[in-house]
Amino acid sequence: MPRSVNSVASRARRKKILSKTRGNFLSRKNVWTVAKNTYEKGLTYAYRDRKAKKREFRSLWIQRINAAARQYGLTYSQLMGRLAKENIGLNRKVLADLAMNNPKAFEAIVKSVNK
Known about the structure:
Elements: H1 7-20, H2 32-70, H3 76-85, H4 92-101, H5 103-113
Helix pairs in contact: 1-2, 2-4, 4-5
């Protein structure tokens, strides 16, 4: 009895991976084993960097808040401590956006905690 290899499914599985590695350089796009390794490594990087992206943005927001707060004679930690004491529940993303795009609103917040 001949061996059954289910070539339709095998080809479809390979084609799916090879289509996802389009645009890669040299054999990374068309050699099955290299393309499969490239694709799997890319998924690993994507998972890792979804977490890293959150850390990088938080760091950026803190830098922006610190720079804006220092214009009013406060450090980042002093500002955040006073915001917590006054129960002003603005997160870092919003504060950084106000500091960049609406300095007057940020100034009003700083003045409200500087009383």
